[in-house]
UniProtKB/TrEMBL annotation, chain A:
Belongs to the MICOS complex subunit Mic60 family. Keywords: Coiled coil, Membrane, Mitochondrion, Mitochondrion inner membrane, Transmembrane, Transmembrane helix. The lineage of its organism: Eukaryota, Metazoa, Spiralia, Gnathifera, Rotifera. The keyword Transport does not apply. It comes from Adineta steineri. Residues 534-599 form a coiled coil. It is found in: Mitochondrion inner membrane. PANTHER family: MICOS COMPLEX SUBUNIT MIC60, MITOFILIN. Component of the mitochondrial contact site and cristae organizing system (MICOS) complex. Residues 26-110 are annotated as: Disordered. This is MICOS complex subunit MIC60. The keyword Cell cycle does not apply. Transmembrane segments: none annotated.
UniProtKB/TrEMBL annotation, chain B:
This is MICOS complex subunit MIC10. The keyword Transmembrane helix applies. It comes from Adineta steineri. PANTHER family: MICOS COMPLEX SUBUNIT MIC10. The keyword rRNA processing does not apply.
């Protein structure tokens, strides 16, 4: 850029030289045209100091004629040819045709010369304009290019030749192509708010996913439980089966033992065997069922602990008690008939008996009253008749009774024989009654004779008294004397003694006879009894043996039944015991299992909670870190933004393209910073024209040239001649660039003149030391100062703006430094 | 010539002055020449001297104008811009200071 802005002084010399040589080469070719060309002024080149180069422009035309071939543009290249081409109608300087003094040339040549001259003039003008445009490379060229359509292509083509040949650098007419770096791109690269938010959200999403993927408590529990179930299942299956097997085996063994003992204990009878086998089968079935139930109960580990299995504990069936032995059946018909007859007889018999009994009793009672009543005499016939009547009654009834009784007895005998010894139940009663009756009847009969006895007694007593004591017979009982009484008493006593002796004698006789009779009877009876007894004994023996047998059978059955019962009970007890044991075991194991399960699950629970907690803590920490990071990043981003904007502004200031927008953006970014506000206001109110360094450099080169050219002109009254002189001087003075100023401050302020100042400033500018350059430039004096004044002002303003923007940038840097992420 | 749509830079003043000068001179010279030709043709029987005279007068006038124009900083209000610049500086310094 610098070099492009700075046309080296030497270039013009070389240029001149080339032009001169070309001219020297070309002059024999066309002298006529040279003459005509020299007199023409070049109306196209109205910018001025190159008027002296007009002569060289003619050479340019010739050179231009020599190289049409490789030019890209089309029509225009043909035009410089001096063949007879009709010139296009849009040739710019029509005045060029009018002004060339046709009058100055010889009017005698006729039309041909006229035309030739016209053509020459036109081409000359064109070449002159082109050459000048090329040379000037500035506003004239731009104007030309803007007004004339294809001139840019022509000039571009010329550029392609001229630039390599003359070493001319990049032309100024081109826009500065390397733009300010698009900071928007950079801005985009910074993670904006949205992106940071996105990132934060992403993090949150990932954390949420993680959290969701963590199993819930319930599922954890379920998983733990299922795990525990599996573990416990395997455990149980491993252990319980063995234990259950052992228990069941034990139970079966016990049962078997019980059965065997029972079997051994019992006597070996067929029925017993059968019952036993039956019992055994039952017990085995019971054991089997127990086994089954135990086996089934085991895998139900998932059930609630302590729940007793309901299969065990069914009470085994109890056999019913055996029935009593049935007595051997009597031939029923006879039995029944006899019984009927007996019953039939019994009722009237009993009635008769009763009647008889009552009669007898009546009689006896009556007689008793008679006897006890001493006042009764024998003459009382009514009572005696009654008594007799009663006695008669009793006697008749008694006879009836005896008859019926006899009958009945016969029947009974039959009955007893048929029933083999079994006595009719009524018989006893009848016997009793009969005995009572008999007693009563005897008393009644005895009492019957009471009256006769009384009569007889009185009679005899009277007789006795008469015989023995005749003297007493006639006396009344009141008339008896003491001696009589004694005599009576003696008599009575003697009589009584005698009677008593008689009674005794008779009693003895009686007793003897009775004894004998009794003995005889007894012997009889004994014999009978013996017989009967033997009969009876046999019968009863038979009966008893039967009974015994039946009893034995019964007993046996009872034994069986009891045994069964016992077995059943034992079995029950066993099963109950088994069940108890099993349930207890089960409960124990279930409890243990539950405990372990709880342990494990709480462990897992705690673990997971710990993990959750740590994860959550980490999450929180991460979130906080992210937020803090976000904050700091936010601030950093702001600072960066500010910095970028400041850079932007700086660059724009440097390049001269600031806009209001940039400044407004600044105010939007950091609305709170006072310093920034001050700077911003300053920048905003800066009304100086927008420049950039390029322009300033360019201008400086221009300014420098001008200054050199007017170096001799000072503040006094200067004439044009002075201008020419100073110009001439500028041509002659050749200064090397003096870079010593940069190394040591070797400026002698007293010996400054324009050229040195300009040199120094040139060096400064080339080393980008604008401030120094500006300071030095201000030391110019005279016309150069005037010439450079606006440059100085602009540079000053530009530098001020740059300084402000640099301040802004520095400030943004300072802010940004504070928000850098803290890394260790 | 060029209408200044912005305040003229000082270095261009010089250029513009020269433009003016040259054009002016040329115009004057040309007009002088023309007049001279006219006069020569009309009044002075095609003698060459009016032409030269006219041209010379023209050139001289132009020269004088140029010179006067170049001296004009001390007549025009150029110093005011300097003062304005100074004011600008002063205000700037007061603002920032």
């Amino acid at each position: 850029m610098l070099r492009a802005a700075h046309l080296p002084r030497s270039q013009s010399a070389a240029y001149n030289f080339s032009l001169v040589t070309k001219r020297w080469q070309q002059t024999p070719a066309s002298p006529g045209t040279g003459i005509t060309a020299s007199t023409k002024s070049t109306p196209g080149s109205h910018t001025t100091q190159y008027a002296t180069n007009n002569s060289s422009s003619t050479l340019k035309t010739q050179t231009a004629t020599a190289r049409p071939s490789f030019n890209a543009p089309i029509d225009r290249t043909n035009n410089p040819n001096k063949t007879t081409n009709t010139p296009p109608s849009y040739i710019p300087p029509p005045s060029a045709r009018s002004s060339p003094p046709t009058g100055s040339g010889s009017s005698g040549g006729g039309g041909g010369r006229m035309i030739k001259s016209i053509i020459y003039g036109v081409t000359l003008g064109l070449t002159a304009t082109l050459v000048y445009a090329e040379y000037e490379n500035g506003p004239f060229r731009r104007q030309l290019e803007s007004t004339i359509p294809y001139s840019s292509t022509v000039l571009g083509g010329l550029d392609q030749v001229i630039d390599p040949v003359f070493g001319r650098q990049k032309p100024f007419t081109k826009e500065i192509t390397d733009k300010i770096p698009d900071l928007a791109y950079v801005k985009d690269k910074i993670p904006g708010k949205e992106q940071i938010k996105k990132i934060g959200e992403q993090v949150k999403d990932t954390t949420n996913n993680v959290l969701e993927k963590l199993p819930d408590k319930t599922t954890i529990k379920k998983a733990g439980e299922s795990a525990k179930d599996a573990v416990s299942n395997t455990y149980h299956k491993l252990t319980d089966q063995n234990k259950a097997k052992g228990v069941v085996d034990q139970a079966t063994n016990q049962v078997k033992d019980a059965v065997n003992t029972v079997r051994e204990a019992l006597p070996d009878t067929a029925g017993l065997k059968k019952g036993l086998t039956h019992a055994k089968e039952q017990v085995q079935d019971a054991a089997h069922t127990v086994k089954e139930t135990v086996k089934d109960a085991l895998p139900l580990a998932k059930g609630k602990s302590g729940e007793p299995t309901k299969k065990i504990g069914d009470p085994m069936f109890l056999e019913e008690a055996g029935e009593m032995g049935v007595p051997p059946p009597i031939p029923e018909d006879k039995y029944k008939k006899l019984e009927e007859e007996i019953n039939h007889l019994f009722a009237p018999l009993s009635k008769q008996l009763d009647d008889a009994l009552t009669a007898a009793r009546e009689h006896v009672s009556h007689m008793k009253t008679l006897i006890e009543n001493p006042n009764i005499s024998t003459s009382d016939h009514e009572t005696w008749k009654k008594a007799e009547h009663l006695q008669e009654q009793a006697r008749t009834s008694y006879e009836k009774v005896t008859d019926t009784l006899r009958e009945w007895k016969n029947k009974l005998i039959e009955y007893t024989t048929t029933t083999s010894g079994q006595i009719h139940p009524e018989e006893k009663k009848v016997d009793e009654k009969y005995q009572e009756l008999h007693k009563q009847y005897t008393t009644s009969t005895f009492v019957k004779n009471f009256r006769t006895y009384i009569d007889d007694a009185t009679k005899s007593f009277q007789k006795e008294i008469e015989t023995m004591f005749p003297s007493l017979a006639g006396k009344n009982p009141t008339q008896l004397t003491h001696e009589d009484l004694q005599a009576l008493l003696v008599h009575a006593h003697r009589r009584i003694v005698k009677l008593q002796n008689d009674i005794a004698r008779m009693r003895v006789n009686e007793s003897d006879s009775v004894k004998a009779a009794i003995d005889v009877q007894r012997a009889d009876i004994d014999r009978l009894v013996e017989q009967r007894v033997q009969e009876r004994v046999a019968k009863t023996a038979e009966q008893l043996t039967d009974e015994l047998k039946s009893y034995e059978k019964n007993l046996r059955q009872q034994f069986d039944e009891q045994l069964k019962h016992e077995i059943v009970l034992q079995h029950q007890a066993l099963t109950q015991y088994l069940a108890d044991v099993l349930s207890r075991q089960y409960q124990e194991w279930a409890r243990e299992y539950e405990k372990q399960l709880d342990n494990e699950s709480t462990k897992i629970n705690l673990n997971l909670q710990n993990q959750l907690r740590t994860t959550l803590d980490r999450l929180h920490a991460i979130e906080q870190a992210i937020e803090a990071n976000y904050d700091s990043q936010e601030r950093g981003r702001k600072a960066q933004h500010l910095w970028i904007q400041a850079q932007n502004i700086l660059n724009k200031v440097v390049h001269g393209t600031t806009t209001e927008n940039d400044l407004d953006v600044i105010s939007k970014i950091v609305p709170n910073e006072k310093f920034v506000q001050v700077l911003f206001n300053q920048l905003k109110t800066d009304e100086s024209p927008i420049t950039n360094e390029e322009m300033l450099r360019e201008r400086f080169s221009h300014v420098k040239k001008l200054c050199r050219r007017v170096a001799l002109i000072n503040d006094g009254h200067n004439s044009l001649w002075n201008y020419f002189l100073s110009y001439f001087q500028s041509l002659l003075i050749v200064r090397q660039r003096d870079d010593s100023i940069l190394v040591d401050d070797a400026i002698d302020l007293n010996q400054l003149d324009t050229f040195t100042i300009l040199n120094y400033v040139q060096s400064y500018l080339e080393h980008n030391q604008w401030y120094n350059a500006l300071r030095l430039m201000q030391l110019l004096t005279g016309e150069p100062k005037n010439v450079a004044q606006s440059w100085i002002n602009d540079t000053r303003n530009y530098l001020a703006k740059k300084q402000t923007s640099e301040l802004l940038e520095a400030y943004s840097n300072s802010i940004g430094l504070g928000t850098l992420p803290r890394t260790a | 010539m060029t209408t200044p749509n912005r305040p003229l830079a000082s270095e261009e003043v010089y250029g513009e002055k020269w433009d003016r000068c040259m054009t002016d001179t040329m115009v004057k010279a040309a007009s002088g020449l023309a007049l001279g030709i006219v006069f020569s043709a009309v009044l002075f029987k095609r003698r060459p001297w009016p032409v030269f005279l006219g041209t010379g007068i023209g050139l001289g006038m132009g020269y004088g104008n140029c010179q006067n124009d170049f001296r004009s900083p001390y007549v025009h209000s150029q110093p005011l811009t300097l003062a304005k610049a100074h004011e600008h500086i002063l205000t700037k310094s007061s603002n920032s200071g």
